[in-house]
Amino acid sequence: MDEKQLLNLMNTLSVEEKIGQLVQLSGDFFNEGAMAVGPVQKLGINQGMVQLTGSVLNVLGADKVIKIQSDYLEKSRHKIPLLFMADIIYGYKTVFPIPLALGSSWNPDMVNLCNQTTAKEACAAGAHVTFAPMVDVVRDARWGRCMESTGEDTYLNSVFAKAMVEGFQGDFTPGESLASCVKHFAAYGAPEGGRDYNTVDMSERRLREEYLPPYKAAVDAGCELVMTSFNTVDEIPATANQWLMDEVLRKEWGFDGILITDYAAIAELIAHGVAESDKDAARLAMEAGVDIDMKTSCYANQLKPLLEEGEISLKKLDEAVLRVLKLKNKLGLFEDPFRGASVAREKKLSNCAESKSLSRQAATQSLVLLQNLNDTLPLTKEWKIALIGPYANNQDLNGLWAVYGDKSQVVTLKTAFEEILNPDHFQFTQGCELLDSYEGLGDFGFFTKEETLLNTDEDKKRELNKAIELAKWADVVIFAMGEHTLQSGEAGSRTDLNLPAIQTAFMEQVLPWVKKSILLLFNGRPLVLTDIKDKVDAILECWFPGTEGGHAIVDLLMGYANPSGRLTMSFPCAVGQVPIYYNGFNTGRPQKTSTHSVRFTSRYLDCPNEPLYPFGYGLSYHTAEYSNLKISNSVLRSGEQVEVEIEVHNSSEISGDEVVQFYIRDKVGSVVRPVKELRGFQKIHLKAGEKRKVIFTITEDLLRFHTRDMKFEAEEGDFEIYIGKNSEDYLVTNFLFEKK
Ligand code: BGC
Ligand code: BGC
Fold first, then answer.
1. Nearest CA residue ID for atom 8, ligand 1
2. What's the rounded mean pLDDT across residues 196-208?
3. What is the residue with the minimal CA distance to atom 11 of ligand 1?
4. Per annotation, catalytic residue among 262, 293, 537, 666
5. Which of 1, 288, 601, 703 shows a CA-CA span of 20 to 30 A to 43?
6. Strand partners, 368
7. Is there a single domain that holds both residue 318 and residue 379?
8. For the segment 156-195, what is each residue's pLDDT rounded down to a tens digit?
């Protein structure tokens, strides 16, 4: 349809029919089970409105979608197809690593490909829109949703935001692409105390400098939808925040797609205390420019009276409806309301060999080697290997947001080892439980807690003894430990970020018998590893690696692949340090350079300022040396560019990938500037012995920030450049920026 036809169609709709387009319900309203994650409530929507609903939440599967769509269209007066929206965050049936892990790959092209694959699989299952990417900047490991983000850095998240949106959307080919919804707008990743849904409050400058750019990058990449966040922004909940939605998103950024709420967020304006009633809440959301109400009855029941009373205008309603119709049209739903959904195609694509192979590659690049004392890794086939721990033979490797992931396809560590080693060289046992108690974790839609396997004291003792026997037998013990899936993800905030006590206590009992030890970690956030790191030889951060996790991990452990992942979130020494991130401000009394006596510098009495593992950190099996940092000109003028070049030498006999990281520091600004900011990176492959020059180009654009009077511009003066392996290990040079 062209724009005129769409307008004509809209003008033939009754007010109720228009409102229906702005209502999103879950599948239970259509007699099909939906995956419910947020609080399910009795909505109080009449059947008439259900039949007018414009979109459906979290129902997928070609059979279900085709049936709901057919039934709906049969009864519909205007035959406007339903939009099927779902949380397809890092995979459909084939699950890729969690986004925090994907971020660690520093490989946006690969992540783009993962999303293309996911889009194809999910289209076959009937999806039209995905609630991804989540690009919230995350700096507080207490927050469970760190797992959904690519990390703490504004620039890196922006790069991934673009790659992810482009991967999902492609060129909108029906059957191969999804419309993408960036979330959670805005600053959801900065809740006070790391507690989910809690207050977010920061200066406008900080919001614009550090938190907004990744969403903007997604919008600039053409994402079709934006989701409002649950939190407040300047004491106004995002869902009712006119400044944020209208002034910034629509007017400044020119976003003309659909603004949808997060789950039930309009009704929650009442609990926030900015609305008295559903009606008041609907009015506020409408005024802020929210188009679709996810899962409340506020729009369904209140927009009509608000219109009749003149509280909202027909123009505003029409604008919202037109946006929804435009997306349906762009997706080609008027021509084909099923858009590639097919039971046969879904079956063929789900977990197909190609997707699995990409998932394995993604997991391989996402794992981060944190410690490797005495070159414990890689292992050799001659060694006797004991694999011990609650993740030794556990298919829960998908993490919490793999809503549709097919757990039965997950390759466990045990399976992967047994494919290459016989029992003379490989033995395994569970050893201990994941947690002492599963109380308090709550339920999370699709994810159900497994029953405890080691019920009695006798069971526990037997397992411990078996673990000790294996430790005595083995040349090396691999401990497969970590968080329970429900300990991270939405509403998974925690204050204790150590490994669960039952696991460390178990390790203490086995370690005395161990010759060499490797700790594999499965978790959705940075953990505090300060104590445990001194007790083991090697640590490999595995995150939740997805369908092919077992294979990818074993590939790295055996040296069939060389680790290349680098952290995108700092790992704290202690919870008391969080929020902790590499690009803070210097303060007036920086610990290392202040002229004040030690007592009076900015520091902790009982803990270093630095994290245990910094942003950008990760080891490999090869060794790389960085040298000869050179700058083409020590002065940069507006409109010109300078180049910085560094030489990277793989001085080992193993080929491998390096993530060459490029940071800038603005030495003096009209407002304080971060101690460094990532401004570029290159992931390069170096053969054994290879030397390569890596070049970064600096232009005025890289130097812009929100100045004292809130202009976005570069200021003249001295800049430092750091290029190296991570945010704490680099070479330094500098230049002067002058405006002509
Ligand atoms: C989450 C969103 C998600 C939505 C729909 C909410 O609880 O915050 O990230 O997209 O549910 O399932
Ligand atoms: C303290 C002030 C104090 C001043 C003079 C500073 O270090 O922060 O509270 O008044 O010294 O002694």
1. 262
2. 98
3. 263
4. 262
5. 288
6. 541
7. no
8. 999 999 999 999 999 999 999 999 999 999 999 999 999 9
For residue 587, report the distance from its CA to the centre of ligand 2, in Å. Answer: 16
Rounded distance between C-alpha atoms, residue 190 and residue 167, angstroms? 27
**Residues 319 and 384 placed together within one structural domain of the fold:** no
- Closest-lying ligand to the alpha carbon of 596? 2
Query: Which atom of ligand 1 has the smallest separation from the CA of 181?
Result: 10
Six-digit token pair at 415?
Answer: 């399976």
Q: 313: domain range?
A: 1-84+297-338
Which of 434, 449, 411 has its CA nearest to residue 546? 411
Pocket probe mutation, ligand 1, options 263, 266, 403, max atoms within 8 Å of Cβ: 263
Residue 227 Cα: closest atom of ligand 1: 10
Which ligand number lies closest to the CA of residue 589? 2
Distance 595 CA to ligand 2 centre (A): 15
Residue 241: what pLDDT? Answer: 98
Last residue of a domain, which of 513, 546, 575?
A: 575
Q: In terms of domains, do 724 and 639 share one?
A: yes
- Indicate the helix (H) or strand (E) that contains 450: none
pLDDT mean over 10-28: 95
Atom of ligand 1 nearest to the CA of 183: 9
Is 38 a residue whose pLDDT tops 70?
no
Mutating to test ligand 1, I would choose from 37, 56, 292 the residue with most ligand atoms within 8 A of its C-beta, which is 37
- Give the model confidence (pLDDT) of 437-472 as tens digits: 888 888 887 777 665 678 889 999 999 999 999 999
Mean pLDDT, rounded, of the chain: 96
User: What percentage of the chain reaches a pLDDT higher than 90?
Assistant: 94
Which tokens belong to 280?
A: 């008041």
What are the structure tokens assigned to 170, written together? Answer: 């492609």
Q: For ligand 1, what atom is nearest to the CA of residue 403?
A: 12
192 near 136, Cβ under 8 Å?
A: no
Give the residues surrounding ligand 1 with Cβ less than 6 Å away: 37-38, 58, 87, 131, 183, 262-263, 490
User: Does some domain include residue 585?
Assistant: no
Out of 22-36, 185-199, 635-649, which region has the weakest mean confidence (pLDDT)? 22-36
Task: Give the number of the ligand closest to the Cα of residue 40.
Answer: 1
**pLDDT at position 451, please?**
56
Let me know if 136 is a catalytic residue.
no
The pLDDT of residue 37 is above 60: no
| Ligand 2 centre distance from Cα of residue 668 (Å) | 26
**Residue 53 counted as domain residue:** yes
In a domain, 78, yes or no: yes
pLDDT band at 32 (very low <50, low <70, confident <90, very high): low
Number of domains in the chain: 3
C-alpha 597 to ligand 2 mean position (Å): 13
CA of 681 to the centre of ligand 1 (A): 31
Domain membership flag for residue 223: no
Q: Is 530 helix (H, G, I), strand (E, B) or coil?
A: coil
How many Cβ atoms are within 10 Å of 515's Cβ, its own excluded? 13
Q: pLDDT category, 45, cuts 50, 70, 90?
A: confident
What single-letter DSSP state applies at residue 252?
Answer: I
pLDDT band at 86 (very low <50, low <70, confident <90, very high): very high
Beta partners for 95? 91
d(CA 630, CA 628): 6
In a shared domain, residues 530 and 628: no
Cβ count within 10 A of residue 87: 26
Q: Is 40's pLDDT higher than 70?
A: no
* 600 alpha carbon, closest ligand: 2
